[in-house]
């Protein structure tokens, strides 16, 4: 089959319309020009670089035509052939894939500073706030300022203690809703997304979605978040051939900008309302938005917090906090329902610690050891970010005896490492007991298990994620029994994205274990 045929590139262009065909023709013509440049480069390229082994691919495009939608498992299959460090040529971009704890340690600990930058996608660069958030900002004073703001003012343990009442109220609201839906099918992922969204927006600006707006606003938010996430995950010609970025051949930039605009309009409305309240002499709120606005007005700051920074942090919280937490809870419930004996054991532990005449509180969580093991096992099998966020070295360096070139895109396949049969016994089995010795945690110090990453760029939202998932999961298990709708089969398979999703949404039937007065 010719590489210029439409079917060959069907993974890249998902719909078969006239615009897609024009884009494919433009790309195919561009290949002719790139081919000439490629052969010229091959004749004159430096000979001293010893890159890791990997598939040869095709001239100019490299391995682009062979990418699979389930990119994390595709990279795992390549590692079985080429080893734990491999080179993947994707157009003009050299990608290095790491699939072993020892090599992950070399990148994320031994050479942490050199790999502390990100390979920023073209779609992110095109967004107004994309280049100034905590995820993509280059390592340096600006990033350290953003990280400090997040940890000190938004996501630190002491701050999270002060907003516990928000998490408490929102999970109670959700349990009341589920009680009203007793014995009826419920899309659990959607409900958890909405619950986490309400927690985050309440923390940010005190705006909880209530009444009839609940489902409509949640769907709008979830769609926008999903579009942003899918744009970041979709292979983009603009990333692999930067000279073509201006054409946005796949429309990835346009789609992401549309989703980003939806969220931006919400943020603008909230910020404008807050500024008008301040001008009118109204009482100031004590939420995170108010803190950020005060920091923005601090003229003495060494690195000033701009309005773009402020909106980028709001975007990080909404996009980074909703899908990751709700998907993890959805995977956890699916795995537990697929292992009834484990689910029963978890409920027995919660009943023992909490009792049957009260609801779960966060103060109970340190005593729920088995539930903690369950959460760790869920994140081992289904890490929220299966490839973490790609790193990029400031300077070429040696990893595992091979050269990792400056500016290359470095994937750390945490998903594959955490399923490696040479490290984990029966790795595909859901067995929380493997964490019973308490030796493994989320700190990123052990590179056989690091679902939140490691080093300077470890996930800033880790404390909130740990609390939220544990607390909400414990509440769901304590308050209800769970069954599948009649005739339905359980599916725990995954769908790749920058955030890992459950391929088939979990639709379940709750049956109350507590009385409604408990909520």
Automatic annotation (TrEMBL):
Keywords, alphabetical: Heme, Iron, Membrane, Metal-binding, Monooxygenase, Oxidoreductase, Transmembrane, Transmembrane helix
Residues spanning the membrane: 22-41
InterPro entries xrefs: Cyt_P450, Cyt_P450_CS, Cyt_P450_E_grp-I, Cyt_P450_sf
Cofactor: heme
Nucleotidyltransferase listed as a keyword: no
Family under the similarity heading: Belongs to the cytochrome P450 family.
Name of the protein in question: Cytochrome P450
